[in-house]
Structures are given as structure tokens and as C-alpha cells.
Amino acid sequence: MEGYVRPRGFHVVEGDPQCRNWRHYLAEEGGVTTSSGLWQSTQGVFAFRFEHWEFFHVISGIVEVTPEGGAPMTLRAGDAMVMEPGFTGRWQVVETMLKHYVTRLSV
């Protein structure tokens, strides 16, 4: 699909998830980079390890987040979550999802 790319920083486990990112804000101050925008992914499963802090709010679709060694959490439109640096697990996009995100990364 035009404009879609493989998820960066994720290892695809199943399917062919394609992602799109619309960054609306980017700033660096005091060694911390903050960004926000919209992110979309088609169906698929990938493993991930967050190196940054992220708050996200699901606008549409369904995603199942399973922390390593933990129980799966199903998130739908209206749900929100915070990922801490070092959070490791699986991300299964059940239905194409769109989320609004804010990230902070120490550089």
C-alpha cells in the first residue's frame, strides 16, 4: 500500500503489518526529544521493546498488547495506555488501528 512502511523498531512475528506515521510535533530540550502525532497500523503481530516513554490513545481499531510474562490487554477506540522505557512484549493489531501518541526519549 502506498505510503506504508514496515514498523520501525519492531520485529514482525506474523502477517504483514504496515504502518504510517503523521508527526505533528517534534522538539528537543535538555537532552530529551518529545514528539506527538498519529500512527496507524494494519493487521499483524510484532514483538517490541520500548526504549522511550509513550502515552497513546486509540482512536479506532483494536490492538492486543501482551507484556512479556503477563496477560494480554485488549485496547479499543477510546482506550489509552502508557508504555515505560524497557516495556517488552507483543503487539497484535486485530483490526487496523489509529492512535494519537506522545513520546519522550532521552538522547
Describe this structure in words.
This protein has one domain: Jelly Rolls, CATH 2.60.120. With 107 residues, it is mainly β. Helices cover 0% and strands 69% of the residues. This is (S)-ureidoglycine aminohydrolase cupin domain-containing protein.
Q: How would you briefly describe this protein structure?
A:
This protein has one domain: Sandwich (Jelly Rolls). The chain has no helices and eight strands.
- Secondary-structure element string: EEEEEEEE
Computed CA radius of gyration, to the nearest angstrom: 13 Å
The level-1 CATH class: Mainly Beta
- Broad structural category: mainly beta
Q: What is the overall number of helices? A: 0
CATH architecture: Sandwich
Which overall shape is indicated by the principal axes computed on the Cα atoms?
A: globular
* CATH fold field value: Jelly Rolls
Quick one: CATH superfamily?
Jelly Rolls
User: Alpha-carbon distance between the termini?
Assistant: 33 Å
Helix content: under 10%
Main β-sheet description: 8 strands, antiparallel
Average residue pLDDT: 91
Number of domains: 1
How much beta, percentage-wise?
over 45%
Low-confidence stretches: none
Please give the number of β-strands. 8
